[in-house]
Amino acid sequence: MKNTLNVLLGKLRMKQLQLLIALDHQKSLHKAAGLMSMTQSAASKALQELESMFEAPLFERSKSGMIPNQLGHCVIRHARLVATDLTALCQDVAEIRSGRGGRLAIGAIMGAIPQCVIPAVNRLHAGHPNLSIEVVEDTSARMLAQLDDGRLDLMIGRAAVAADPSKYQYRPLADEPLSVVVGYGHPPLPRKEVKLGDLADHRWVMYPSHMPLHALLEREMDLAGLTMPDNPISTASTFVTVALLQSRADLVSLLPTAIAEMFIRQKMLRAVPVKLKSPSQTFGVVTRKGGVLSPPAERFVELLRQHMKMRDEPDMQKPKPKRAPATKRKAA
User: Which segments show compositional bias classed as Basic residues (predicted)?
Assistant: First the structure.
């Protein structure tokens, strides 16, 4: 490993890594060379030098072009990471020199945004008005890929969905309770507590099968002695879910409670009083293990933890309002 590292540090050039990325896109040495403004012979020589450094081929030649093998995929993934980090470095330097501050890219699952991410972003922006902040909302699985590629500095989600969770540092923040919801135009619900079986005449709007919340609903249905509906409407979009629920009274869905409450306050949704049996899932701050966070990212994590600590303080620790002094009764 030490010898390989010394070879890479001594011989590896950024142009070679860019060629790998171009080859992964183009599947053709001729096209990749053209994209890099290189001759095909120069590109071929650069690839040979790379494969010599790793003492193994990185691509397989096939009818569909040059396809990276297992080692090639590994090297390309890290090449993208290096390229992304260098791009971010150049952007940060340019923004700092221009007086605009730096850049922070945050990924977050849907349920963490209203009561966790937004308050911390607002406080960070107030203290660093020249900082450029990007917030990406997506599933944990897709954001982990963006974290690997360096497109995100950190994410608020779950590392457990990764093929290898040990690659990441995970610091838990809070639970993500869920609510069953219908559109605001839904007729009033007749009882205080509703069972999932009582919603049999409703059509479900649910998450795609690869998402954890789909598995949770499947488990709830199983615990209730029900089977999953055969004709659901599947979407990972909160906007689509809410728009569908508003459009028809016979639709029902499962949403993170923090998201549901936001739309309930705006009289767009109604909560269905269903008691779910599954424990709430936990989310937290996920970063690349061994990576170093930028000062804005460190400050954001600090603000997150401060906000969540304040939010979770028991009511008994908050100052109680003073009672007005009792008025004396006038003598008759």
Answer: 319-332
Please state which of the four CATH numbers 2.60.40.1730, 3.20.20.150, 3.40.1670.10, 3.40.190.290 is assigned to the domain occupying 178-278: 3.40.190.290
d(CA 196, CA 213): 16
2-82 classified as CATH 1.10.10.10: yes
Rounded to two decimals, the pTM is 0.63
Q: At 277, which helix (H) or strand (E)?
A: none
Spatial CB neighbours of 156, under 8 Å, sequence gap ≥ 6:
106, 107, 108, 109, 112, 116, 117, 173, 283, 284, 285, 286, 304
